[in-house]
Amino acid sequence: MKIIKNVVGFLFFGLILPVSLFFGGWQGWKLMNWFLSAPVADNQKQDQTIEFYIPPGTAAVQIGQKLENQGIIRSATAWKLWTYWLQIKDSEGEYKAGTYQLSPTASVPELASTIWQGKVIQVNFTIPEGWNINQMGEYFESKGFFSRDEFVSATRVIPQNKYAWLPNDLPHLEGFLYPDTYKITGDLITPQRVINAMLDRFEQLALPVYQQAQNPSSFDLLEWATLASIVEKETVVEKERSLIAGVFVRRLKVGMRLQADPTVEYGLGIKQTADRPLTYKQVETPNPYNTYINTGLPPTPIASPGIASLKATLYPENTEYVYFVARYDGTHVFSKTLAQHNAATRAIRRQRQARGR
Q: What is the predicted pLDDT for the residue at 8?
């Protein structure tokens, strides 16, 4: 079959086309260029692209016909003839399946080269440390990948058949979707593909840190990710990260409640600000994530921790501090006693009020 195609291509480009151009002259040349050129002029729709999907196993003739039907090329025949030319130059090559972003101002040779080389859509996205599943879903929806609800629903399906290391009885994948920058190339971007990419990255980068720890804490994998997520949410200044982890580890050891604001926020689905801090009513509202009421760790992570918080939780700073309160600049005042902590809190509150005036 390839030999036949090569012969046909040779006859067209080696004999028929030159003869036609010889007798047709300038008009023949113009006609050929017209068939190979884009149906849309350069000054029209030049900023627009067309998403074009080629299923696996689609024949070159079918691709050309589909391109013509969608108005991307003028002639499926011109596409077929140019395909013969590509097969002469690259007898082992072929058009690749996938989804492409095609320009309506591109010529047949340009479009054919794009699909021949398999330059499918590459989707980039970045998940910052400390984001939770809902924030990720809103982000993906804003990028036009899929809806927030589709993503959140997909995170409730725990793929332990593929990722056997995932803890048992997880209600969702919070804390195990690794925050990083991703590039996904393929024909279809789905919530499951995104989730798999993030679980793969956790498996590659985070899991070995836990498995290879020389002096690991007594936390199991779920507890490790959960505490690391709280450390991630509480840390603003990098130099304090291991100290904050140390405070939480000490609280757990002596049986104190963690009293971490981010767990209350997560449980209530709210976000406090400097102008609108948590109220006493909110802090006193019972829910499984309220560490002001419940002793120990919440049932799951509250966000995706980065590698720094994961490491800090494994190797926390040994400290006698059991309290800390945030300043305006992201740093904290650490205290050993409740009296010291209350004094620091009052001082910071006075500073905040003074700045407000």
A: 43
Residue 221 CA, distance from chain mean position: 23
Bridge partner list, 220: none
The mean pLDDT of the chain is 85
**3-state per-residue secondary structure call for the chain:** CHHHHHHHHHHHHHHHHHHHHHHHHHHHHHHHHHHHCCCCCCCCCCCCCEEEEECCCCCHHHHHHHHHHCCCCCCHHHHHHHHHHHHHHCCCCCCCCEEEEECCCCCHHHHHHHHHCCCCCEEEEECCCCCCHHHHHHHHHHCCCCCHHHHHHHCCCCCCCCCCCCCCCCCCCCCCCCCCEEEEECCCCCHHHHHHHHHHHHHHHHHHHHHCCCCCCCCCHHHHHHHHHHHHHHCCCHHHHHHHHHHHHHHHHHCCCCCCHHHHHHHHCCCCCCCCCCCHHHHCCCCCCCCCCCCCCCCCCCCCCCHHHHHHHHCCCCCCCCEEEECCCCCEEEECCHHHHHHHHHHHHHHHHHHHC
Domain ranges of the chain: 2-116, 123-211, 221-356
- Report whether pLDDT(31) > 80: no
What does residue 3 show for φ and ψ, rounded to 5 degrees?
-65, -40
How far is CA 230 from each of CA 75, 200, 216, rounded to the nearest angstrom? 60, 22, 18
pTM over 0.70: yes
pLDDT at 216: 53
Give per-residue pLDDT as tens, 196-253: 999 999 999 999 999 988 665 579 999 999 999 999 999 999 999 999 999 999 999 9
Q: How far is CA 217 from CA 14, 76, 229, 243, in A?
A: 74, 66, 16, 15
For 54-78, what is each residue's pLDDT tens digit? Answer: 888 889 999 999 999 988 888 888 8
Domain 2-116: assigned CATH number: 3.30.1490.480
